[in-house]
């Protein structure tokens, strides 16, 4: 069993307790996208990329009961200290953090970040947004906060219980311009257009125009 296969087996149990917006199928989609991007970046370390993808949500504050899940799983894998550190640093660079993200300084960070963000765009991104919103009791839209697109800090962003449509404006529609790889930018542009069309349709239906 490869290290990636071992890690995959360990993380499945963690993601099984998350809602469908961040379940193991999300991880599998991100992994497939990351591998596709990595094929266009010959210097990328695929092992670090794959492990970072598999582990990037296990300690997500939205779900995790402990911040040690990521470290606990890494400790069970046959990795050098340097490899463990690379995986941790790659994971740390993935999160949007309300616009206060860490700088992606390696190609592995850029690939994992782009792959994860691509899964927040397009038809899948729309589905995930509403699944997450439904699981956490969010409104579809809220006219009082729909134009709130920025926050003064990461903490303020995480503390805000935004409506789903607000989330499109405060994060999802910004992702296209934050892509870091050529392949990521290409796919993001296509998926972004679909999301814009969806929001236009949603608005028209809500207003009784369609």
Automatic annotation (TrEMBL):
PROSITE patterns linked: HD
Pfam families: HD (PF01966)
InterPro entries: HD/PDEase_dom (IPR003607), HD_domain (IPR006674)
SMART domains hit by this protein: HDc
Gene3D superfamilies found in the cross-reference section: 1.10.3210.50
Transcription found in the keyword field: no
Domain called HD: residue spans: 23-121
One Gene Ontology term of the molecular function aspect: hydrolase activity
Key words, A-Z: Hydrolase
PANTHER family, alphabetized: HD_PDEASE DOMAIN-CONTAINING PROTEIN (PTHR33594:SF1), SUPERFAMILY HYDROLASE, PUTATIVE (AFU_ORTHOLOGUE AFUA_1G03035)-RELATED (PTHR33594)
Protein name: Phosphohydrolase
Lineage of the organism: Bacteria, Bacillati, Bacillota, Bacilli, Bacillales
């Amino acid at each position: 069993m490869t290290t990636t296969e071992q890690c995959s087996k360990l993380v499945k149990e963690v993601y099984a307790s998350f809602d469908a917006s961040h379940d193991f199928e999300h991880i599998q989609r991100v992994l497939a996208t990351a591998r596709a991007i990595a094929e266009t970046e010959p210097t990328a370390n695929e092992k670090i990329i794959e492990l970072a993808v598999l582990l990037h949500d296990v300690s997500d504050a939205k779900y995790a009961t402990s911040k040690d899940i990521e470290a606990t799983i890494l400790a069970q894998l046959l990795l050098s200290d340097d490899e463990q550190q690379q995986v941790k640093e790659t994971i740390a660079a993935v999160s949007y953090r309300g616009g206060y993200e860490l700088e992606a300084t390696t190609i592995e960070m850029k690939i994992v970040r782009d792959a994860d963000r691509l899964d927040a765009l397009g038809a899948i991104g729309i589905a995930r947004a509403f699944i997450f919103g439904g699981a956490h009791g969010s409104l579809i839209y809220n006219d009082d906060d729909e134009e709130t697109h920025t926050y003064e800090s990461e903490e303020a962003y995480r503390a805000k219980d935004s409506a789903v449509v607000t989330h499109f404006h405060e994060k999802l529609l910004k992702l296209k311009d934050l892509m870091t790889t050529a392949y990521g930018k290409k796919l993001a542009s296509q998926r972004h257009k679909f999301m814009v069309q969806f929001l236009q349709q949603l608005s028209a239906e809500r207003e009784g125009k369609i």
